[in-house]
């Protein structure tokens, strides 16, 4: 749930009835398990079968009215209070239904367009984001710039009613399936770093744009590298004004990192949580007994349970201004760092419970739970890097919350 719109503790205006309605629909309409391995998140979607299965599910959720519930009706949304979307999201997570694949559109590009886009852009892009007809990807990182986003060198040169784009982007999630990309490119090479960058909403089908799949450590192909070779896009793909790209990119990251609300909803990954790890500990063996009986294992589980509960309560606390007055931005700015690092530690511990079986991988008949824990551990690093690596997130907290000097 977004921190800004947690539902009240007591039933108000039929929210309990709505929660039951959502749960009943999800239970009845849950798609059958496929005969192929589902990805854990949009960052691992690498086959047509996976993509079509997940997009079909997004379309069903949207048609039922449980996606984009708080977005304006004029653009295909439900026009309802945000609390309804939060309840729907919570039920999707509780029932562990498949995730919706258009994460970048629903959670980053869509909220940004609604916040700063012009009317034509809202009419053009928002309905397709919700329906899943228009998949979005992100063009921020570059092969030679690492995490130095401000040093982006992909060029966009104005030529009449078009921009001509040259360069390359990397780690483009869903790049093979995307119809549009949010792109940060340099329009003024005479300006350094932050100045001279502009922000575009570009069609991926434009001539001169191509993608190359990137094989991950897990063997999956969720990422691509994207190449621009004199690609021409309409000038009205620009959002905001030339030179405002850095500020708009930072606004996008507030949506990506969960600092700002306004996302369309749906879950964006198949999350293994602390309760799943406790159940694994019950089934695992340590010195001939269930691992859950081992004092060391129990201590570790308690620590992880405290972390998980703390993160849940932080979301509730951030919605109460009186509890955040001393450091108003602390919870929002630390959320991405806390949640992703917790998930990484949780998956590492789950793998460690398996002893020698920890070395087994997906496809090994003897792997515990089909190897999903090992796969989850390796994939957990994606979230600690995407949206800004943990080291950068720690610097942000140090500088903007604690007031520490940059040097």
**Could you say which overall geometry the principal axes of the C-alpha atoms support?**
globular
Order of helices and strands: HHHHHEEEEEEEHHEEHHHH
Q: Looking at CATH, which topology of the largest domain would you report?
A: Butyryl-Coa Dehydrogenase, subunit A, domain 1
- In DSSP terms (H or I, runs of 4 or more residues), the helix count works out at 11
Q: Give me the count of strands.
A: 9
Named CATH architecture of the largest domain = Orthogonal Bundle
Low-confidence stretches: 1-11
Largest sheet: 4 strands, antiparallel
Structural class: alpha+beta
CATH superfamily of the largest domain: Acyl-CoA dehydrogenase/oxidase, N-terminal domain
Overall pLDDT level: 91
Task: Describe the structure in brief.
The chain is of the alpha+beta class and 407 residues long. Helix content is 41%, strand content 13%. The two termini are 36 Å apart.
Task: Explain what the structure shows.
With 407 residues, the protein is of the alpha+beta class. It has 3 domains: 3-132, Acyl-CoA dehydrogenase/oxidase, N-terminal domain (Butyryl-Coa Dehydrogenase, subunit A, domain 1); 137-256, Butyryl-CoA Dehydrogenase, subunit A, domain 2; 274-401, Butyryl-CoA Dehydrogenase, subunit A, domain 3. Helix content is 41%, strand content 13%. The strands form 3 sheets. The protein has a 4-stranded antiparallel beta sheet with strand order 2-3-7-6, with no helix packed on it. β2 (155-159) and β3 (162-169) form a beta hairpin. α4 packs across α6, α7 (274-283) packs parallel to α9 (330-352) and α9 runs antiparallel to α11. The radius of gyration is 22 Å and the shape is globular. Residues 1-11 have low confidence and may be disordered.
